[in-house]
Structure formats: structure tokens, C-alpha cells
Design goal:
Elements (H helix, E strand, L loop, with lengths): L8 H22 L18 H6 L26 H5 L7 E6 L2 H12 L6 H11 L1 H5 L3 E4 L4 H7 L3 H13 L2 E2 L4 E3 L11 H8 L3 E3 L4 H4 L3 E9 L3 H12 L4 E9 L9
Parallel strand pairs: 1-7, 2-3, 2-6, 6-7
Antiparallel strand pairs: 4-5
The structure holds zinc ion.
């Protein structure tokens, strides 16, 4: 009797993929950890000292509204031109680092290479950068993946970062508060206005989570802030669900969208 003919090929492929993953995980445990950016050997999980020193940590002075670093200190309370010309729906945004080569490698390792071991350190840097936001916050809400992309990547990197920040700050994370109500194109390669219309109305607060959002001060968590279109669309959805305030905390932000596209 040929039992193989009774097993669907897709199921066999899934089993094979599962075995491959298990093998890779067992190898990861056996091998010494590598720096996710340059693949040099490191003693602990995380970046080697050289790559760490290349990370562009963002510190004051920056725009109190958008968190965009200033080249010089214009004095307290002075906003960036962008915050005045095109104010977002969210109140304040903060980022741990500039989105440069090392930051991009970390984001991609977390997102596509199952490097969930990076989330605690990235979350720690975010918690430090967003301290004043977290002091005022009631809840953390991660930006959701599209369900198809969530399936292929199997977990939400924003959720992994939010969990780490929850541990650091004690501010409670509400998972799956936001849902994507329609599919969106990937934002990569789109212009600023295309990005905004691509995600407009794409998010909604889940009906069974509304009571946890209403009247609360929310910190929205994402990995990268580029044009701010996704964060803005999420903030609008949270405000429609009567959130008292929405701030945004990301791992990395694009500081000059012309020079550093995703
Ligand atoms: Zn390195």
C-alpha cells in the first residue's frame, strides 16, 4: 500500500519546512552567536562593539512633536517645519535610532530572519528614547501586519518590540487592538502622497478591544517610521475609537526621506 498518495503535497511541504526550521534552531543553539549586522562572532546575542558604535542613536535636540533631530538647538518648545506644515494625527513621535545601514540590518533580521532574540535589546533602546511618552501612557498598541504577511512571517515584529517595552516600562500591551480592514500595497517604492492614500482607512480598532482604547493614552509601536503615513492612519483609527491621545514610538526613523529610502 502506498501511503504517500494519501498525503496532500502541500502538507508534505509544510512538514519539510517545519523540519528545516527545527534543524536550523538546533544549529543556532549549538553555534556561537553572530553579530546580526556583520556576522562577526560575539560573546552574547546582539551587536558587536563596532556595529553598536555605528548605530545612530537619536538624542536631544529634536522636534518635541515629531522627534526629528535638529542640527542645532533652537531652544525649548520650537517645532520642526514639518510639524507646523503637516501636523500628524498623533501627538508625539520618538525613535531610538536613525534608519541607517546597521539599523536596517537589525530591522530586517528581526522581520525576516526569525531573530526574535534581538527584540529585547531593541525594545530597551526604544523604552529609553520614549521615556517621556511611556510615563504618560496607559497602553501600548503594536501596528498590525496584514494577515497574509503575518502568515508568511509567522509573527508580528512590532508585537515583539511592544512586548519588550511592556517588560521595560510596565505599560500594558493590548495585542490585536488594531486590525487591517483592507489589504494595502507594501509601502516600499511609493511616494509620500501615495503612501498616505495607500493606508488611509486601512485600520480599525477591533470591536472587542474598543473598551480598552476608549479614554486611554496610547503609545503606538512600530519598527520603522518613514513618511509617517502608517502611524498617522493607525492614530486616526485609535482616535476614532476615542483614545484620549496617541503617541508613536519606533525603533528607527528615516531622518531624510530623500537620502534614505526603505
Ligand atoms: Zn557587527
Amino acid at each position: 500500500m502506498d501511503t504517500a498518495t494519501t498525503v496532500a503535497p502541500s502538507r508534505l511541504a509544510r512538514v519539510a519546512a517545519g523540519l528545516r526550521r527545527a534543524l536550523r534552531r538546533s544549529l543556532d543553539v549549538a553555534l556561537p552567536p553572530l553579530c546580526p549586522a556583520c556576522r562577526d562572532l560575539v560573546t552574547d546575542t546582539g551587536l558587536c562593539p563596532t556595529c553598536w558604535s555605528k548605530l545612530g542613536f537619536i538624542s536631544a535636540p529634536y522636534c518635541p512633536r515629531l522627534g526629528i533631530p535638529f542640527a542645532y538647538d533652537p531652544g525649548p518648545g520650537i517645532l520642526s517645519m514639518q510639524a507646523i506644515a503637516d501636523p500628524p494625527a498623533y501627538q508625539r513621535a520618538r525613535a531610538a535610532v536613525r534608519y541607517d545601514d546597521v539599523a536596517r540590518t537589525l530591522v530586517h533580521a528581526l522581520k525576516y530572519q526569525d531573530r526574535t532574540d534581538l527584540a529585547p535589546a531593541m525594545g530597551r533602546w526604544m523604552a529609553r528614547a520614549g521615556r517621556e511618552l511611556l510615563e504618560d501612557a496607559d497602553v501600548l498598541v503594536p501596528v498590525p501586519l496584514h494577515w497574509r504577511r503575518g502568515w508568511s512571517r509567522r509573527y508580528n515584529q512590532s508585537g515583539a518590540l511592544a512586548r519588550s517595552i511592556e517588560r521595560q516600562s510596565g505599560v500594558k500591551m493590548i495585542s490585536e487592538a488594531l486590525r487591517r480592514v483592507r489589504s494595502t500595497q507594501q509601502q516600499i517604492g511609493l511616494s509620500r502622497s501615495q503612501r498616505a492614500s495607500n493606508v488611509q482607512g486601512a485600520f480599525k480598532v477591533a470591536a472587542d478591544r474598543q473598551s480598552e482604547i476608549q479614554g486611554r493614552r496610547v503609545v503606538l509601536i512600530d519598527d520603522v517610521l518613514t513618511s509617517g503615513a502608517t502611524a498617522d492612519a493607525c492614530a486616526r483609527a485609535l482616535l476614532r475609537a476615542k483614545a484620549a491621545q496617541v503617541d508613536v514610538l519606533v525603533f528607527a526613523r528615516v531622518v531624510d526621506t530623500h537620502k534614505a529610502p526603505i
